[in-house]
């Protein structure tokens, strides 16, 4: 069926800020969907309050609402925009839930907005546990037996019926806490007791365990002509028991016979038909490794993280095609855009192996529970493509940017055999490295198979890697021959690791390798295993075989380095910047070459750049691409710290870097040099010193005066930052063996003033400040975790001028062009610089959106030699908008047990949102009430608030006490245990003594019971301001721009 | 041992030859399915061909006793990027490597399979020789597959009957895949397999309810001699043709076939039923196709076409209950989306009134 002619305007629901389990993949899906709709001449209205997304750019949507993802806002938008259709299946669980709410409240019907794609009934059948089970029963497809229980007795009764082992999943606990697998009645009794008490609603799901089965996923598509195709199947290396988001996954399946592959494919097709899905769907199976018995684990009736992965793994643009079929096209009418001449109604064939490896936040969250289970904990993931599994695994490991030495993780290598076996049995994020280490120590594949259930095929691959390691360790650099070196490269060993083992430099290895003519070849991801010619621009490297021809255009080429996997402190904002960078280069007539390894992103959409190299971001991998492409130079300012950290190696190799050089980066990141630079340009910085050892540290700390802030060099997300109130605290930290304290250590004075930050453009001479943010929380709270407002709301013009003057001095003083970010603190009327980041920051997308000016486009032009003047940026600051924009962090606490929700110097948020209003209080309100599911009780009901406030804050707190009471809240200071269990409990105000974290347990317990935890008075202040707002208005960003224009007139 | 594959165009690719062969000749083709190597190597349609697997890791789940498509290995050789030296699967009885050694199937690994696929894609299916010494080779001493009579090598010599269902189907064997037999038996048919050259009288004497012409290797035009019999049978009985059987039925009624530049071999070929507009993902393995413009005057019309290259994928006869498909509804390897065509065929048997049938 051709496109529905009646569709003129469609509302797309985005997925909002990034949380664990819902990351950049929905920006990728959403962007594809919006573009697909626009291509059809449909006007796209979008609601998504995540500013760091590509889909919220004007090139993707005609009207963009950065408004809360609530029923109220969508209803208002429906009323105002009158769209014909609404597309909700590309906005993750958030979009889907919102669509269900809108449907249930009759709002879709009221506004005559047709839900496009998969119908509501199908969504419900997929999402609702009972409906899903009923459907599977009807289809005669097996699901594991399960039951919801509220007492131990019913759990035991259930177990007696279905047999052990039994999985216990407590309802609504953080990170699935309290769950487990019981293999006997005694164990079940123990686990269920804990589970019921941990669950805030005293409820557990008990399920017959199929742990140890192979976990297989299918990505399926269906159109309204009932054509069903599977895009890709995937096999988890980790068997059932670990969430697929936390599993190492390969595509296609490796250990299934064709009979099994087709059996599950047939079942997938049957299910997608029965559900009546129009679009994409993800189906997860558990397959017995010893028979053909399988079970359905889960069906996601929408595009998902897995479908983004499948799209990148195969080249097939699932979301784009899902959008097209949802507006009436059939798959066989749509051209496969990769080949350009075959059709979308086929199934991709791969001639390579894809490895997905999760990226967990435990390098940052050292206190969080890192055990893996049925609750996903990874913040991001990497994908690698190679011609063999071993090299694929190695590429994936390199892409993670962990502190590994080749395939070993030093923290694992230090452990005893017993400790390692414990980690094998209780899998956490380190399990892969643990398995390898045990193999290094001579334990057999069979032993590991017995303990983990991992298919021996995969373990054999690990074993092969270890045996290569041993061979390499037994060889030496001088005697190495062409054939062996080629073998090692084919198995994925990096020059750097080889160099370390052989005791030579990476350069030596590279030189020898090139002399021996051992270079990678680049192959195309063409969806069809080479069967047809393809015109795609999507490549990966391999150490065997010939190049697929690389298109040469004769244009000048520039390489952009992406930011790798999403992690704490390095999120989707850099993907936004990279994509903007690519688009700017296009406009300037350059060919933009992209390198990145994050399958969730828009920058790794093969249609974004002129050529995409899906590769790890290490110096060796980057140089290989440069050798091939012969680019003019490399842009590192848009890829976060990942790209910045490559500067040294690239510069050494003689690569031209635009706007940035190692010396400047070093000058800003090496604290000693930074201080002297600040002195040189006559800009005050926070007093700080570098301590070379413990003694030095303590002496210097007392010279500066407590409280002091301690941190290592070269950090993202404030990793390892600590605040010490007294020498006693500092000493006890230094003495604690658990803490790996590496010197030199940076010690800064702690100035808890008002934090300000600016993003500025410079051509090396003059500056243009794109915007200034004032943080709500005091300095000391990580800038990524604080609520921030632009333009500043309490700052005087004098301070703003000072900010400008310091920014100018800094820009003039450093050898740098492009975009950079400065963080300031205003403490006791004095302005100090905290740090300078010589790259795009997380506030760049926000400033770009509100100013309707692409800061990245300016940046690119500056990098290529334009001056601010020639770009028409003649004022020292862009005009301040006449409305407020609030940036607020979003946390994933519910997914991670063991985290203390206090705001501190270490960043914990996983995503961010923005809200706008000419009434600042309204903007605050929208920032807190940002989604239907995540509305804090503080804003929805009156109840009781517990406060646990240190003496030093009591005077300041007193006025808030009055305000809270006036707002109708009751305040409690005693009987925490009873309070937290009561239905009345809505928030905990916890203000521990400065520099301490007293009250961690209370904060964690309050969080567990779904109460807001407020650890800064300024946060409380703006929450109260938000609460006072009575009327809310919803405007598209385009409305704000128009208002601005009119004001200027 | 080092081994080489020399293409007809003179290009040489190096790999490791795992078996003790001096020189092997065949037509070199590629298969794009990512699983199903066991089915492929035992599919008689591959007789005379060397199969390049585009998926780089082959042999991962070993060789079992249940997934063979015929009693013997049929391919002339296997070319893979990487072969697993063990088979990790509960059904595995040996590794692919051991199996090839035992059955003397030439196995060349470590070759740049993607490069070979690209050559075939550009220059068409061609001949190739696997050798340990790539110098002084001559293709002249070998007959090209298109001129060889390969069907006699794979067709059964005697008549055999399976099952005892209500519908009796005579399956004319050009090198049938076991899955065709399996699906018919599963549907409650009695199946009698007869040699490819069986006469009308022999078939008639078996009193079939319907006749099925199977898949098989080689060029259909090598079998001109049996075309009259095929036509006679198809006029007399509800008839189904699969792959080679489809091509032969087309030829028998006066249509023409031609060789594709490179065949369709894989598990992902989209085919549309022109009557219902339904799309099937099909399993395919063929070099030759029925020319669409040759259908005129045959009373055949194209029922299925390939969505990608618009080639004929199946026929229906306007007068007689004859249904043919170029693809493999029996799957193995590949998807079984189109298995229902067998039910349509069985419906045709029930419907002996000779009405026009449109599936």
What can be said about this structure in brief?
The complex is a heterodimer of chains A (1049) and B (359). Chain A is an alpha/beta fold and 1049 residues long. In chain A, 37% of the residues lie in helices and 19% in strands.
Mean pLDDT of chain B comes to: 95
Structural class of chain B, please?
A: alpha/beta
Query: How far do the termini of chain B sit from each other?
Result: 53 Å
Q: Beta fraction of the residues of chain A?
A: 15-25%
Strand order in space, largest sheet of chain B: 10-12-11-13-14-19-18-17-15-16
Distance between the termini of chain A: 49 Å
Which sheet architecture does the biggest sheet of chain B show?
A: 10 strands, mixed
**Overall shape of chain A:** globular
Structural class of chain A: alpha/beta
Largest interface pair: A-B, 54 and 52 residues
In DSSP terms (H or I, runs of 4 or more residues), the helix count of chain A works out at 38
User: What's the number of extended β-strand segments of chain B?
Assistant: 19
Rg of chain B is 20 Å
- Which residue ranges of chain B are poorly predicted, with pLDDT under 50 across at least 5 consecutive positions? 354-359
Number of strands of chain A: 37
Which bin fits the share of residues in helices of chain B? Answer: 10-25%
**What shape does the CA trace of chain B take?**
globular
Major β-sheet annotation of chain A: 7 strands, antiparallel
What spatial order of strands do you see in the largest sheet of chain A? 14-13-10-11-12-15-16
* Total of helices of chain B: 9
Helical proportion of chain A, percent range: 25-40%
């Amino acid at each position: 069926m051709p496109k529905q002619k009646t569709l003129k305007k469609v509302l797309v629901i985005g997925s909002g800020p990034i949380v664990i389990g819902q990351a950049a993949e929905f920006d990728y899906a959403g962007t594809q969907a919006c573009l697909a709709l626009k291509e059809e001449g449909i006007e796209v209205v979008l609601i998504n309050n995540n500013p760091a997304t590509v889909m919220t750019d004007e090139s993707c949507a005609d009207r963009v609402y950065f408004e809360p993802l609530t029923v109220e806002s969508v209803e208002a938008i429906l009323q105002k925009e009158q769209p014909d259709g609404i597309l909700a299946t590309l906005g993750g669980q958030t979009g889907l839930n919102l669509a269900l709410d809108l449907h249930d409240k009759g709002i879709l019907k009221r506004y005559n907005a047709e839900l496009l794609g998969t119908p509501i009934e199908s969504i419900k059948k997929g999402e609702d546990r009972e409906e899903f089970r009923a459907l599977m029963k009807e289809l005669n497809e097996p699901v594991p037996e399960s039951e919801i229980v509220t007492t131990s007795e019913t759990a035991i009764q259930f177990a007696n019926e279905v047999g052990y082992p039994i999985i216990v999943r407590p309802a609504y606990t953080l990170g699935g806490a309290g769950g487990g697998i019981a293999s006997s009645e005694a164990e079940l009794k123990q686990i269920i007791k804990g589970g019921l008490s941990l669950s805030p609603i005293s409820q557990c799901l008990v399920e017959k365990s199929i742990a140890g089965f192979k976990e297989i996923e299918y990505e399926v598509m269906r159109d309204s002509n009932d054509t069903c195709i599977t895009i890709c199947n995937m096999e988890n290396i980790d068997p059932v028991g670990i969430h697929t988001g936390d599993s190492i996954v390969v595509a296609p399946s490796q250990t299934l016979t064709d009979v099994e592959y087709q059996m599950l494919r047939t079942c997938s097709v049957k299910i997608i038909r029965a559900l009546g899905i129009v679009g994409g769907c993800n189906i997860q199976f558990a397959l017995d490794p010893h028979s053909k018995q399988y079970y359905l684990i889960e069906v996601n009736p929408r595009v998902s993280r897995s479908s983004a992965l499948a799209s990148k793994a195969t080249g097939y643009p699932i979301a784009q095609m899902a959008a097209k079929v949802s507006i009436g096209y059939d798959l066989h009418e749509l051209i496969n855009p990769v080949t350009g001449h075959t059709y979308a109604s086929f199934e991709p064939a791969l001639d390579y192996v894809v490895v997905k490896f999760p990226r967990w936040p435990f390098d940052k969250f050292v206190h969080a529970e890192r055990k893996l289970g049925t609750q996903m904990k990874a913040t991001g993931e990497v994908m690698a493509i190679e011609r063999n599994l071993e090299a694929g695994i190695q590429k994936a490991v390199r892409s993670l940017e962990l502190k590994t030495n080749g395939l070993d993780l030093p923290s694992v290598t230090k452990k005893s055999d017993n400790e390692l076996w414990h980690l094998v049995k209780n899998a956490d994020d380190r399990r892969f490295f643990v398995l390898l280490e045990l193999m290094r120590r001579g334990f057999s594949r069979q032993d590991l198979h017995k303990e983990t259930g991992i298919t021996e095929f995969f373990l054999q691959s690990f074993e092969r890697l270890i045996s290569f390691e041993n061979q390499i360790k037994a060889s030496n650099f001088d005697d190495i021959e062409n054939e062996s070196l080629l073998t090692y490269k084919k198995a994925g060993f990096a020059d750097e690791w080889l160099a370390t083992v052989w005791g030579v430099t990476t350069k030596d290895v590279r030189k020898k390798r090139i002399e021996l003519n051992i270079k990678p070849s680049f192959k195309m991801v063409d969806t069809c295993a080479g069967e047809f010619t393809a015109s795609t621009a999507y490549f990966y490297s391999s150490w065997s075989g010939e190049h697929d021809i690389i298109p040469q255009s004769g244009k000048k080429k520039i390489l952009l380095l992406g930011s790798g996997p999403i992690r704490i402190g390095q999120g989707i904002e850099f993907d936004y910047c990279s994509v903007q960078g690519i688009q700017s280069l296009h406009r300037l007539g350059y060919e933009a070459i992209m390198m990145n390894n994050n399958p969730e992103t828009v920058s790794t959409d093969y249609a974004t750049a002129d050529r995409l190299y899906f590769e790890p971001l290490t110096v060796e991998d980057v140089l290989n691409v440069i050798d091939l492409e012969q680019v003019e130079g490399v842009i590192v300012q848009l890829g976060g710290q990942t790209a910045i950290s490559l500067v040294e190696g690239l510069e050494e190799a003689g690569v031209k870097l635009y706007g940035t050089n190692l010396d400047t980066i070093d000058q800003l990141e090496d604290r000693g040099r930074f201080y002297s630079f600040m002195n040189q340009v006559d800009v005050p910085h926070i007093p700080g010193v570098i301590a070379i050892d413990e003694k030095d540290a303590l002496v210097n700390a007392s010279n500066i005066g407590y409280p002091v802030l301690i941190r290592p060099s070269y950090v993202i997300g404030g990793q390892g930052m600590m605040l010490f109130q007294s020498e006693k605290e500092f000493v006890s930290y230094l003495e604690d063996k658990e803490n790996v304290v590496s010197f030199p250590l940076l010690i800064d004075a702690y100035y808890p003033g008002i934090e300000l930050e600016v993003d500025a453009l410079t051509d090396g001479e003059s500056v243009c400040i794109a915007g200034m943010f004032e943080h709500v929380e005091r300095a000391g709270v990580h800038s990524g975790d604080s609520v921030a407002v632009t333009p500043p709301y309490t700052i005087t013009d004098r301070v703003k001028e000072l900010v400008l003057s310091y920014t100018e001095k800094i820009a003039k003083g450093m050898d740098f062009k492009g975009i950079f970010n400065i963080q300031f603190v205003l403490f006791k009327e004095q302005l100090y610089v905290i740090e300078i980041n010589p790259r795009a920051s997380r506030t760049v997308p926000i400033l770009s959106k509100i100013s309707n000016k692409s800061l990245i486009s300016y940046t690119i032009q500056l990098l290529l030699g334009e001056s601010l003047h020639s770009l028409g940026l003649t004022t020292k600051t862009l005009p301040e908008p006449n409305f407020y924009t609030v940036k607020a962090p979003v946390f994933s606490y519910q997914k991670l047990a063991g985290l203390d929700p206090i705001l501190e110097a270490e960043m914990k948020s996983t995503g961010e949102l923005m809200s706008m209003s000419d009434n600042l209080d309204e903007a605050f309100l929208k920032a807190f009430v940002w989604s239907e599911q995540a509305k804090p009780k503080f804003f929805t009901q009156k109840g009781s608030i517990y406060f646990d406030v240190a003496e030093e804050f009591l005077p300041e707190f007193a006025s808030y006490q009055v305000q809270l009471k006036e707002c109708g809240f009751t305040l409690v200071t005693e009987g925490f245990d009873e309070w937290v269990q009561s239905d009345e409990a809505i928030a905990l105000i916890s203000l521990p003594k400065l520099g301490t974290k007293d009250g961690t347990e209370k904060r964690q317990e309050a969080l567990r019971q779904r109460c807001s935890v407020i650890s800064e008075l300024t946060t409380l202040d703006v929450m109260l301001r938000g609460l006072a707002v009575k009327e809310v208005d919803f405007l598209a960003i385009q409305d704000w721009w128009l208002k601005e224009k009119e004001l200027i007139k | 041992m080092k081994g080489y594959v020399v293409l007809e165009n003179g290009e040489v690719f190096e790999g490791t030859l795992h078996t003790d062969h001096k020189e092997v000749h065949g037509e070199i083709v590629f298969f794009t399915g990512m699983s199903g190597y066991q089915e492929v190597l035992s599919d008689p349609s591959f007789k005379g061909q060397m199969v390049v697997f585009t998926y780089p890791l082959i042999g991962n789940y070993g060789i079992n006793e249940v997934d063979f498509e015929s009693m013997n290995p049929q391919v002339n050789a296997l070319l893979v990027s990487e072969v697993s030296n063990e088979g990790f699967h509960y059904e595995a009885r040996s590794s692919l490597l051991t199996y090839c050694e035992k059955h003397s199937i030439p196995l060349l690994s470590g070759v740049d399979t993607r490069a070979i696929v690209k050559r075939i894609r550009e220059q068409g299916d061609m001949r190739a020789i696997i050798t340990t010494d790539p110098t002084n080779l001559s293709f002249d001493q070998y007959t090209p597959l298109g001129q060889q009579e390969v069907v006699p090598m794979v067709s059964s010599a005697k008549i055999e009957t399976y099952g005892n269902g209500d519908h009796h189907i005579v399956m004319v064997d050009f090198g049938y895949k076991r899955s065709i037999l399996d699906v018919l038996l599963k549907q409650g048919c009695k199946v009698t397999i007869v040699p490819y050259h069986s006469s009308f009288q022999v078939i008639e004497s078996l009193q079939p309810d319907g006749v099925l012409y199977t898949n098989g290797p080689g060029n259909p035009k090598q079998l001109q001699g049996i075309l009259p019999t095929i036509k006679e049978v198809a006029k007399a009985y509800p008839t189904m043709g699969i792959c080679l059987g489809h091509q032969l039925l087309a030829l028998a009624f006066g249509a023409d076939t031609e060789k594709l530049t490179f065949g369709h071999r894989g598990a992902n070929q989209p085919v549309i039923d022109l009557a219902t507009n339904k799309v099937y993902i099909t399993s395919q393995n063929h070099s030759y196709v029925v020319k669409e413009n040759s259908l005129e005057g045959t009373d055949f019309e194209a029922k299925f076409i390939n969505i990608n290259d618009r080639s004929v994928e199946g026929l229906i006869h306007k007068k007689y209950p004859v249904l043919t498909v170029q693809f493999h509804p029996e799957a193995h390897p590949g998807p079984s989306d189109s298995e229902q065509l067998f039910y349509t065929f069985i419906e045709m048997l029930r419907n002996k009134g000779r009405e026009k049938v449109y599936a």
